[in-house]
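To make the argument concrete, we let one protein speak, a sequence paired with a row of structure tokens, as a model reads it:
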Amino acid sequence: MSAPSDAVRVGEIDGMWAFLKQIDWTEPWLITLNVFHIVCLLFTFCTAKYFNVQVVYFLLLLLLIYMSENINEWASQNYKLFARLQYFDSSGLFISVVLCVPVLINCLVILCLWIYTAAHMLVSVKRAQLRQQIKKDKQESENKDK
């Protein structure tokens, strides 16, 4: 089956920047997708202190990545409903670059926030443990002196 005449020719692209230049970033759906990525990143930072919310959010982002192949299939068959050009190739390069990579970066940010929180929690617990040990040692030394 041959590619539509309005398809972006993936075989002619020799690098990532060349590929990104081929994309018409002024299309409303691509602007909306970019706004979605920005909102997702803001949501990530706004929910940094709400672990349960972030776990659900993290799993939803991973589900979105998992579903990207199906999204790519649907979009390649119905691109005329929302796009001027056929970007959705069978190898999934376009959907990987514009959807999956930003979502994976967001997931990486979430993981970094979790590691940061865990490290701070570990330090807090250890400090409290040391304070308690010092207090206990001080009480024992006072009891010996009496």
